C-alpha cells in the first residue's frame, strides 16, 4: 500500500519539484572538484574537492573505503574512495537543503525531501555498480580472444613484443589494460609487476589465473605459448559447461509454468464434462 501510494504521488508531482530535486546535483557539480566525470560527459568542477575528501574520510569506515576503492579501480575511475564517499553523502545533503525551503513554505510535503535525499544517495552507488559490471563483462568476453592472440604472438617472440602485437589488434576494455601494462613496463615496472597491476585493476579470476600461470612459466623458463592457449581452452570449456548447466536449469524452471498453465487447465477442460455427467447420472 505504501509503494502504491508513493507511486501515485510521484505521478502527481509537479515538474518544478523534480527540477528542485535535480538542482541539488547541479549545485554540487558547480562547486565540487574536477576529478570525476559524470554520465553524459558532465564534469564536476570547483573548489570543494578537499571538503568532499574530508567528509568521506570522516563519515565512512575503512571497510567501506576498501570496498569502494576496489570498485573504483575496476570501473577505471581515477578517484579516491574518500572523494566518492563524500560525493555520495554530499548529493543528498544538498538536495535536502534545496527542497527544505519549499517544504517549509508549504509548497511540497516533507516526505519529498526525504525521498529526494534517498534517491540522490542511491544514484551514485548504482551508477558505479553498473559501470563496474559492464566493464567486467566486457573484459570477460575478450579474455579467450586475448589468450589466443597472445599465444599466436608468442611464437618466436618475447612477452613484451607479443603484448605490443596484441595491443594493435585488440580493442575494448581489455585492450586498454594491455596498453596500460605496456606503459607500466616502459616507465620502469618489471613484467611481473605490470601484469600484477593489470590483474588487480580488472579483478577477474580468469585473468588473475592467466597472469599467475604466465609468471610461473617465466620463472621456470617454460614456453608461454602452450600455457596461454591451454588457459583459453579451459575458459571456453568452462563457459560451455556453464551454458549447458543454465539450459538444464531453465528446462526445470519451465516445468512448473507448463504444469500450472497448460496441463492443469487441460485436465480441467477434459475432466469437468466427465465428472459433471457422472454427477448428473448418479445424482438423478
Show the helix and strand layout.
Layout: H1 2-12, H2 15-31, H3 49-59, H4 62-74, H5 81-104, H6 110-153, H7 159-169, H8 172-186, H9 191-202, H10 205-220, H11 224-283
Helix pairs in contact: 2-5, 3-5, 4-5, 5-6, 6-7, 6-11, 7-8, 8-9, 9-10, 10-11
Q: Summarize model confidence as the mean pLDDT.
A: 79
Estimated share of beta-strand residues: under 5%
Number-wise, the strands total 0
Distance between the termini: 50 Å
Largest sheet: none
- Helix count equals 11
How many distinct domains? 2
Write down the secondary-structure element order. HHHHHHHHHHH
| Helix percentage range | over 70%
The global form is flat
Low-confidence stretches: 9-43
Radius of gyration from CA coordinates: 29 Å
Task: Specify the structural class.
Answer: mainly alpha
Structure description:
It is a single chain. The chain is an all-alpha fold. It has two domains: 2-135, no CATH class; 137-235. The chain is 82% helix and 0% strand. It has helices at residues 2-12, 15-31, 49-59, 62-74, 81-104, 110-153, 159-169, 172-186, 191-202, 205-220, 224-283. Helix 3 (49-59) packs across helix 5 (81-104), helix 5 runs antiparallel to helix 6 (110-153) and helix 6 (110-153) crosses helix 7. The longest helix is centred in the C-terminal third of the chain and has 60 residues, at 224-283. Mean pLDDT is 79; it is low at 9-43.
